[in-house]
């Protein structure tokens, strides 16, 4: 089963770095967050990816093109015919198809554009700017069991401060610490879809999270898989720094691979 990764947006909320590269190529621990996402799927045996590129898509292509050079020892021999010798060549067991899905294409349009690379089979879909310790086989089994067109992973981001119970007149009835019941469930990516989803996307201007998913909801064809472990997006520089700090601690929850 292929994994589609949305990696074509402008990343304006983290412009400190995204003015130079696509947001999925911003590094955590010296490697793009895109690599971290792919490593999680690959750990579970899913290693064929279709990457929906757009903004500065050449950066993604060039990184994959030079990947084995970045991870191997190289001898450049200009004394004997300008040779390059690769020592201890190292490459991940990954297959990535990078597709230029357009500069201004919306998320739904990007998914529609890679239809030919998926074919008539189910596929997984996620965002190229968030990591988590999602149990991919469990998610996939859940999707296959309910028989609907789509499954989205949801997560209770909760509150990070004390919670106040306030009456209509402003009186504070109670003050307590946050709990798992506080906050809203949000779509965190790590989705699974049957190929019928392509029929719900008209073209480049379609936002995937709006018309297609809302139509599935109306038809009773979208099911939520609740993730209760770790998840964190990288929308801002502050969140990037948080992920970097977690990685440097040596206890990154999303690092499930050896």
How would you sum up this structure, described in words?
The structure is a single chain. 27% of the residues lie in helices and 27% in strands. Strands 1, 4, 7, 8, 10, 13, 14 and 15 form an 8-stranded mixed β-sheet that branches. Strands 2-3 form a two-stranded antiparallel sheet. The model has no long low-confidence stretch (mean pLDDT 90). With 258 residues, the chain is of the alpha/beta class. The chain has a single domain (2-248), classed as Spore Coat Polysaccharide Biosynthesis Protein SpsA, Chain A (Alpha-Beta Complex), CATH 3.90.550.10. The protein has helices spanning 15-18, 33-43, 57-65, 67-70, 107-113, 115-118, 136-146, 211-218, 237-248; strands at 2-7, 27-28, 31-32, 48-53, 73-77, 83-87, 95-100, 123-127, 130-132, 150-156, 163-166, 172-176, 185-187, 191-193, 222-226, 231-233.
Question: Descriptors for this entry?
Answer:
258 residues; 27% helix; 9 helices; alpha/beta; 16 strands; Spore Coat Polysaccharide Biosynthesis Protein SpsA, Chain A; 8-stranded mixed β-sheet
């Amino acid at each position: 089963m292929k994994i589609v990764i949305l990696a074509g947006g402008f990343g304006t909320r983290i412009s400190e770095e995204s003015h130079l590269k696509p947001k999925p190529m911003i590094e955590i621990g010296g490697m793009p967050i895109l690599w971290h996402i792919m490593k999680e799927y690959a750990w579970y045996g899913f290693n064929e990816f279709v990457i929906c590129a757009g903004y500065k898509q050449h950066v993604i292509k060039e990184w994959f093109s030079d990947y084995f050079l970045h991870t191997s020892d190289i001898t450049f021999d200009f004394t004997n015919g300008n040779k390059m010798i690769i020592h201890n060549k190292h490459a991940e067991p990954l297959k990535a198809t990078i597709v230029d899905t357009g500069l201004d294409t919306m998320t739904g349009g990007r998914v529609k554009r890679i239809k030919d690379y998926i074919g008539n089979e189910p596929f997984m879909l996620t965002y190229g700017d968030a990591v988590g310790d999602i149990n991919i086989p469990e998610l996939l089994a859940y999707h296959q069991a309910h028989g609907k067109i789509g499954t989205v992973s949801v997560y209770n981001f909760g509150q990070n401060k004390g919670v106040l119970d306030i009456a209509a007149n402003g009186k504070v009835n109670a003050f307590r610490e946050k709990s798992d019941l506080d906050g809203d469930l949000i779509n965190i990516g790590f989705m699974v879809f049957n190929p019928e989803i392509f029929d719900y996307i008209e073209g480049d201007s379609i936002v995937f999270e709006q018309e297609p998913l809302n139509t599935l909801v109306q038809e009773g064809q979208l099911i939520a898989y609740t993730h209760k472990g770790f998840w964190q997006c990288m929308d801002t520089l502050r969140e990037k720094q948080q992920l970097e700090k977690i990685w440097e601690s040596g206890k990154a929850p999303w690092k499930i691979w050896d």
